[in-house]
Structure formats: C-alpha cells, structure tokens
C-alpha cells in the first residue's frame, strides 16, 4: 500500500465522519424543533381545555336558568 492509498483512505474516513457529524447535528436541530412544537401544542391544549370548562359551566348556567330546559311534571298539569 502506497502513501497515496493511505492518504486517500484517511480522506475518505474524514469525509464520512464529517458527513455523519453534520447528519447528527441536523437531527438534533430537528428534535429540538419538534420538542418545542410539542411544548407549544401542550400549552394550547391546556388553554383550550380551560376555555371548554368555562364554556361548559356557562352553558350549564344558562340551561338551569332557562325554563325551556326545566323538567316538567306532566301528571300535575293533566289534572
């Protein structure tokens, strides 16, 4: 094996290592982006759950205050 062959092999290994390092860095950035996005979705989900609870309570209050949704005693009305 000549020194040129060894040098070419070292160069190929260096290029492969560089490619792998760049790929790992890219995947790390992708993971960070996805993690950040998941955190944002979790926050939005909690906010929407809270809003739904408020709206649900509001609807219940409206229904209990409205005579349309009150139960009627049909037996006493027939007499």
From TrEMBL:
Pfam families: DUF2205. Its main location: cytoplasm. Positive regulator of amino acid starvation-induced autophagy. It comes from Pagothenia borchgrevinki (Bald rockcod). Residues 17-51 form a coiled coil. Gene3D superfamilies: 1.20.5.170. It comes from the Eukaryota. It is found in: Cytoplasm, Cytosol; Golgi apparatus membrane; Golgi apparatus, trans-Golgi network. The keyword Coiled coil applies. This is Short coiled-coil protein. Belongs to the SCOC family. One of its GO terms (cellular component) is Golgi membrane. It is a peripheral membrane protein. The keyword ATP-binding does not apply. Keywords: Coiled coil, Cytoplasm, Golgi apparatus, Membrane.
